[in-house]
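G.,

No rush on this.
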Amino acid sequence: MNINRYLMVLAIGTGMIAISLLLFKIPIIAVWELLLVSVSLITVWVYYDWREKKKIEVRKIQDKIKAEKCWCHVCKHTEAQDCIKVNCTCCLLLKKNEILGHESG
């Protein structure tokens, strides 16, 4: 099991325990610490999941670009991988220093 699943199990488990204690009419004053922990775990879980998806997306884009050929007449590279290494502005599509794609043409 990876970290994302551990966080999911902890977040859902603590949330269910807190809700079940409230269903048994235990005062919220006694359960608020557990509710606070469950909300913070859910927040960490959602953030971690978003960050991992972003990393996977960036890796897929870079792997796709590395397999391409470069036909740019300005930089005269033959492989798109060389453009990534030197960060060519003539054929790389950038947004806030993040590579979005490679335009070979």
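When you get to it, here's the other one too:
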Amino acid sequence: MKTILLIAHFIAIATGTGMSIANYINIRIASGEKGDRAAALAYLRRVLARIADIVIAAIWITGIGLWLNLAPAEEPNIWFMVKIGFVLLLTLSHGLARMTAGRMMRSGDATLYPRLELFVSGVWMSALAAIILAVLAFET
């Protein structure tokens, strides 16, 4: 069971990383666009964000499952604890990106693109760190 959870966890983190990099590229392209192209890119970001909500839930569910699957005498190692910190940062960055994107959609304020870019960068950098730390934390 632990192996299946670990595989699912790695897939979820890798999916989140890929999606956040795609979202980052979308933001960089969209910052100079107007009209229908900007609207289409905004729609794509909304779709990616909805999928990302599910991916982050999968990261948390599989991570908690791995934690609960530790042997009773086995304590989480330092890599696991640092990984949890990066997953918290990933989740926080995702939430702030969603809030900023929502504010942009409601107000039409294009000056929020740099802030959105910062938060999305936080998501993918945290996800990359979490992948590396998960490999170190769950080596068998």
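The chain has a mean pLDDT of 87. The helical segments are 2-30, 35-68, 78-107, 113-137.

Enjoy the weekend,
O.
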